[in-house]
Amino acid sequence: MNDWIDILFSPYYNSNIFYVILEFTAVSFTVFSVFFAQNNSIWGYPIGIVSTIIYSYLTFVTSLYGDFIINLYYTVMSFYGWYVWLYKKDKKNKEMPITFCNQKDYFYTFILFFSTCIFSIMVYYFHGKLQSHFDWMDVLTTGIYFSGMYQMSMKKVENWIFWMVGNVISVPLYFLKGFVLTGILFIILVLLAIAGFFIWKKKALNEIL
């Protein structure tokens, strides 16, 4: 058991304690933000912003440019989603309801996914980083997460599907990158995304009835 623990946390043995504390803080805030998002609470955004800002810094200083782009986008979209959830009302001046995607939503999501992947490829290429399967997986997850964040800001049930797929892919990637705490976080996030999907699906169906 101790051997597995040593292997698992070996990337931290020679790490700067400041970075370890930052990662632990980001992990904690991410979990809380997802819990709030599951319950359709706007507090998920300000709490999530703290996490994404920390991860933006950590991924930039470790040259994980795809992840840096993702977290920078998260931060911007979190401010946008925060605004939309606060001020975008329906015709009865009620808060924006949770709904399912329509054809237009799928079209915009596809365009965002495709353009994000192209942009990520360009960033990796110009930094000489597009040389392994892991780099291509980063490109894929960047597109997935951009799409999921967009759909979450629009309160679409399907946003949780993007989080499920992206988080499953990201679990081994973060372990291999040395972000062990974040790898464990993404295992938790897979389960939270599954729960979030069913919670939002139920809320959306209640809106229809």
Provide a short characterization of the protein structure.
The protein has 209 residues and is mainly alpha-helical. Helix content is 78%, strand content 0%.
The tally of beta strands, per DSSP, is 0
Task: Give the amount of beta strand, in percent.
Answer: under 5%
Q: Indicate the radius of gyration in whole angstroms.
A: 18 Å
Contiguous uncertain segments of 5+ residues: none
Inertia-based shape? globular
Overall average residue pLDDT: 84
Total helices: the number is 8
Main sheet properties: none
End-to-end span in angstroms?
52 Å
Element pattern in H and E = HHHHHHHH
Fraction of helical residues:
over 70%
**Which class best fits the helix and strand makeup?**
mainly alpha
Structure, explained:
By secondary structure, this protein is an all-alpha fold. Helices cover 78% and strands 0% of the residues. It has helices at 2-9, 17-38, 44-61, 65-87, 103-126, 133-153, 159-177, 180-208. α2 runs parallel beside α8 and α6 runs antiparallel to α7. The longest helix is centred in the C-terminal third of the chain and has 29 residues, at 180-208. It is globular, with a radius of gyration of 18 Å. The termini are far apart. The mean pLDDT is 84.
